[in-house]
């Protein structure tokens, strides 16, 4: 059996592929800064790079959450109450970590 792909079939395949791409869901929350901690990426010890995570205790939770933290964002002090937008790993299954996008005023 020989399968022949026509230009229409190729275009339909590309369309279905693009429609199935997950959209990044942005969440908003407030909490109290607990601390910052520096980690090293996994892999070859000569190619590992440091990255920073911030730990924030949400207002309505009894536990703290860890977020990747971009060094381009201004650092907040320990104990500061902050509101922020972030990519939540629980709502974005394609992401490996939750990441803070920006601080809200």
Structure report:
With about 100 residues, the protein is mainly beta. It has one domain (about 25-105): OB fold (Dihydrolipoamide Acetyltransferase, E2P) (Beta Barrel). It is about 10% helix and about 40% strand. The protein has one helix and five strands; from the N terminus they run αβββββ. The protein has one helix at about 5-20, and strands spanning about 25-40, 50-60, 65-70, 80-85, 100-105. Strands 3-2-1-4-5 form a five-stranded antiparallel β-sheet, with no helix packed on it. It starts with 6 loop residues before the first helix and ends with a strand. About 5% of the residues are buried. The model has no long low-confidence stretch (mean pLDDT about 85).
Number of strands: 5
Count of helical stretches: 1
Shape: extended
Proportion of strand residues: 35-45%
The gyration radius over C-alpha positions equals 20 Å
Q: What helical percentage do the residues reach? A: 10-25%
What strand line-up does the widest sheet have?
3-2-1-4-5
Low-confidence stretches: none
In short:
The protein is mainly β.
Break the fold down into its secondary structure elements and pairings.
Blueprint (H helix, E strand, L loop, with lengths): L6 H13 L6 E15 L9 E9 L5 E6 L11 E7 L11 E6 L1
């Amino acid at each position: 059996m020989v399968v022949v792909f026509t230009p229409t079939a190729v275009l339909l395949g590309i369309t279905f592929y693009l429609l199935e791409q997950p959209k990044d869901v942005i969440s908003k929350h407030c909490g109290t800064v607990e601390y910052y901690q520096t980690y090293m990426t996994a892999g070859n010890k000569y190619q590992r790079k440091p990255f920073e995570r911030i730990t924030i205790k949400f207002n309505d939770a009894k536990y703290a959450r860890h977020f990747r933290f971009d060094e381009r964002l201004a650092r907040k002090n320990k104990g500061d109450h902050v509101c922020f937008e972030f990519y939540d790993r629980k709502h974005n299954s394609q992401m490996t970590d939750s990441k803070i996008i920006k601080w809200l005023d």
